[in-house]
Every structure is written in C-alpha cells, then in structure tokens.
Amino acid sequence: MSEAVDVADTAQRGFLEERRGAVLRLTLDRPQRRNALTVDLVAGLADRIAAVRDERDGHDPVRVVVLAGASPVFCAGGDLTDLSEVASHGPAAVTDVVYRHFQRLVAELLGSPVPVIAEIDGAALGAGLDLAMACDLRVATTRSTFASSWIGVGLVPGMGGAHLLTHAIGVTRAREMVLLGEAISAQTALEWGLLNRVAAPEDLPAAVDALAQRLASLPATALDRSKASLSRVVTPGLHTELATLGSVQGALLTSSDFQERTARFR
Hints:
Number of strands: 10
Strand content: 15-25%
Largest sheet: 7 strands, mixed
CATH superfamily: 2-enoyl-CoA Hydratase, Chain A, domain 1
Helix content: 40-55%
Radius of gyration: 17 Å
Shape: globular
Number of helices: 11
Structural class: alpha/beta
CATH class: Alpha Beta
Order of helices and strands: EHEEHEHHEEHEEHHEHEHHH
C-alpha cells in the first residue's frame, strides 16, 4: 500500500512525495520542463532529505529514499530560465544560490544516514547527472542516457559532478565526460561503473523496489555507519571543490558565453 504525502504542497515545489512502508519516494515533477532543477525545487528537496535525518529516531522512520523523475526523463539539468533570473542579480547572487541551495542538496544526499537510490528512466544531463551521482546507488533503464553537459552552455559541473564522476568512473573517463560533454548510453554507463543496475523500462520499478527492500531489511545503525565510511572517502576533497565552484559558477553564469548559448532555451 502506498500513500501520497502532502501532494499539493510538494507539487507546487516541483516534486512529489510518496511513502511506501520504510521507503520514501521523491519524484521530480516538472515534466513540461524535463524536470529541470529550479532554486525552489532544489531547496525543497534539500529540506526533505534533511528532515529524514531529523526523523530517524522517531516512530516508523524512513529507512531508504528513492529519487526519481517524472516521465520522459530523470532530469535534464538546471532550469536555464530560473538560473538566468538569478544571474541577472550578479555573480555574488549566483554564488550565494549555488552554495546555499544546489550544493546543500548534494551535501544532504551524501550526508543522509539512510541510503538514497536514483531511479533513472531517460536522460540525466548536467545538474541531473550530478544529482544522480550524489546518490548512493543508481538504477537506470536501457533507454537512459547520461551527459555532463555543463560545458555546452559555458558552465562547469556546479554540483560537484567532476569530483563525483572521477571517484565513480576514474580520471580518464571522467575527463572525457566533463570536457567533451557528450552523452553515453546506459550500457556504457554500466560498464564504466556509473550505474549499479540496468533494467528494461517496464522492469525498473520492481528492480528499484527489490533493492530498496533489501536495504530496508538491513540493520539501520550498521547501514548508517557503512554509508558514513564510504562518504568519508569522497567528501573531504568535495567540500573544497564545492567552495571553489560557488565563485567559479558565479562568474560563468553572468558571462556572455552563457547568455549566448542559452538564449534559445530562455
């Protein structure tokens, strides 16, 4: 039995929330904008992930989070219209927004005491790929594609994607993805170590549910400590990288390159 939680409120923020036993499902719900990330959406997701930490000692706590995207994609990146509005206020405003909201979401996902599974059907591009990389496990469909597409609009992977990709798939392949910005298939992503599982589109929900139920059945404290141990390998250098990216992205988002390359989207 599944139960939607505060659907009206979460839909207004750009995501839906559903509780299935010990599993909390968060679904990006802006299909008309290909689930592109706005400041409000990112802030709302970060708040909800943080609340999971606060609720873990209560009655019937969340044991696993699943992060998905409404069809037809997982997430096409940052919402360029929304980001352009932020950029109109200058580099300092961009740096503040990137650090406080987008990078906070990455920190909350990595620091959450419960495992987070990215359920990916369709494209995960730019910030969408960074978002998936901040999750603990990634399961995708055979029709999914992946690209660190930031460079195509004159930006850098502002949510730590270069750092996270390097840890996941190695320096050589990470450089290929970040510097070229070209898409790879789900099969290639699996072979490179970017994904944990690949399933047919119709089998994705069952594959993710089986993984979530397996995680939820394990000892909670040991799972928390194990995730923390894995995160300690990644996060020390990541914090430095994110601090640097805030100012770098502030300059790039207010540059003529970004304005020219995103004019057709806006």
